Amino acid sequence: MEMPYFPGCTLYRKAENLDASTRSSLAALGVKLIELPRWTCCGAVVPLARDNYMGMVAAARILADAAKMGKTLATVCSFCYNVLKQVNYVMQRDPEARQKLNNYLEEGYRGEVRVIHALEICRQNPSLRAAKDRGSGYLRGLKVACYYGCTLLRPAAVALDDAENPAVMEEMVAVLGAEAVAYPLRTACCGSYQVLHEGALVAQKVREIIASASAAGAEVIITSCPLCQFNLDWWQERFSREDGGFRPVPVLYFTQLLGMALGVPPGDLGLERHLVDPRPLLSGAPL
Amino acid sequence: MFLRSKGSEELIGRVKEISGQDPHLCMQCGTCGGNCTAREFMDFLPRQVVRMVQLGDARALRCRSIWICSTCLLCTVRCPRGIDVARMMEALRVINLRRGREALPVAKIPAGLLGQVPQMALVGGLRKLSA
Hints:
CATH topology of the largest domain in chain A: Rossmann fold
Helix content of chain B: 40-55%
Shape of chain A: globular
Helix content of chain A: 40-55%
Strand content of chain B: under 5%
Number of domains of chain A: 2
Structural class of chain A: alpha/beta
CATH architecture of the largest domain in chain A: 3-Layer(aba) Sandwich
Oligomer: heterodimer
Order of helices and strands of chain B: HHHHHHHHH
CATH architecture of the largest domain in chain B: Orthogonal Bundle
Distance between the termini of chain A: 26 Å
Shape of chain B: globular
Largest interface: A-B, 45 and 43 residues
Number of strands of chain B: 0
Largest sheet of chain A: 4 strands, parallel
Structural class of chain B: mainly alpha
Distance between the termini of chain B: 32 Å
Largest sheet of chain B: none
CATH class of the largest domain in chain A: Alpha Beta
Number of domains of chain B: 2
Radius of gyration of chain A: 19 Å
């Protein structure tokens, strides 16, 4: 099965390993991602000011282009997912915004594309379900903290799952034979782009999130957001340097864990790019 | 004590227009602040910022809180009165930004971070915090 795919700007630079592991792990599930022939950055954040139409132009352009390729558009970066889905929602429901954006773009797009996240592709995938039915346990009880953060879940109108009590990542982890730990801060915010402006805020959030996951016994954290991954990874590496007693928890993309379980060659997953090296922990798992 | 001035109605009107939210729905329960990602770093809790907007108090435009907000939307999804608090915070930011008052000039981004952060942080941060 082929599906149009929007990687997003970060996946071409700092998060190449999210892009590579998404393509390879979904390929292992029989889904071939076909990158849009032309695309730009989606804008990263949705404008919350109602009169900021310019902030929605890029995403509307991407969606209108995707409509020419098919009915769905796959993406994996949490920010891209949020922006595309929110702008699509506006194109479906706000006639004034729709007209303004279409006039600007010289398009007639009405929100007909379905934006789908790689986690949703996994949830629907029969190959992954078959793995569950066989009861196979690739990752042998590895304790995993699923970290959703903000943009997969909020606002509720575009949430990937229940905004307050999501389960899609935990279900995937269970299918792979690992154990999803329950911890309170899985839908908390890591501080996001405040890393540029108020580093102390992000440092505190990272400490809280890591403490919460560690207390639940997590050996590894998974996410689909390159900014969450960066914040959790970069600050933990710094805490480790400053305090020998700090025990960092590796932060992976969920697609890297999925790829390992599905037999994607580890060299294709970009595990070496993380600051807190996950490889010593994962070397015990059958690769 | 705060006394309304000529500018008060204008501020209330502009925040309503840009955010699409009615600040007067707020009953000051404080759920937003209790959930807020950045509460410990704010000079006024989101509830207090909303109160200032209800009154048309221009201190809402000058407080630090509006720039510390990470737009995580926890306040928005949990407000029992259905107010999109994050949109009100954004309205207060853009009123400043459109007058050229910004919180994050590029020169203030720590050099050690600039080459390391993912692109989305730069695009997102500059869109929210820079004029």
